[in-house]
C-alpha cells in the first residue's frame, strides 16, 4: 500500500470531517455544512445533472475502468 496515498486520503477525510464539525457546531448558520452546499447545488435542474454526471464519472474511474468481463476466456 502506498504510504503517500494513505496519508493523502486520511488528510482529505479529516478535512471534510472538520468542515462538517465546524458547520454543525456553529449554530448561527454562518458556516455551511456539506449537505447545505449539496442542497444548494441540486436545487436547480442543471445542478442535478452536474452532480449526476460527476457521480457517473467518479464511479467509472474508481470502480469500472480496468475490469475484465467475467465470462471472457
Describe what this molecule looks like in 3D.
The protein has one domain (3-64). The chain is 70% helix and 0% strand. The chain has helices at 3-25, 34-41, 45-64. The longest helix has 23 residues, at 3-25. The radius of gyration is 18 Å and the shape is flat. The protein starts with a helix and ends in a 9-residue tail after the last helix.
What can be said about this structure in brief?
By secondary structure, the chain is an all-alpha fold. It has 3 helices and no strands.
List the helices and strands and how they pair.
Blueprint: H1 3-25, H2 34-41, H3 45-64
Q: Specify the biggest β-sheet.
A: none
Task: Tell me the radius of gyration.
Answer: 18 Å
Number of distinct helices: 3
Strand % is: under 5%
The geometry reads as flat
Give the tally of β-strands.
0
The span between the termini is 30 Å
Q: Mean pLDDT score, rounded?
A: 88
Please indicate the count of domains: 1
- What's the helical proportion of residues? 55-70%
Structural class label: mainly alpha
Please provide the ordered H/E string of secondary-structure elements: HHH
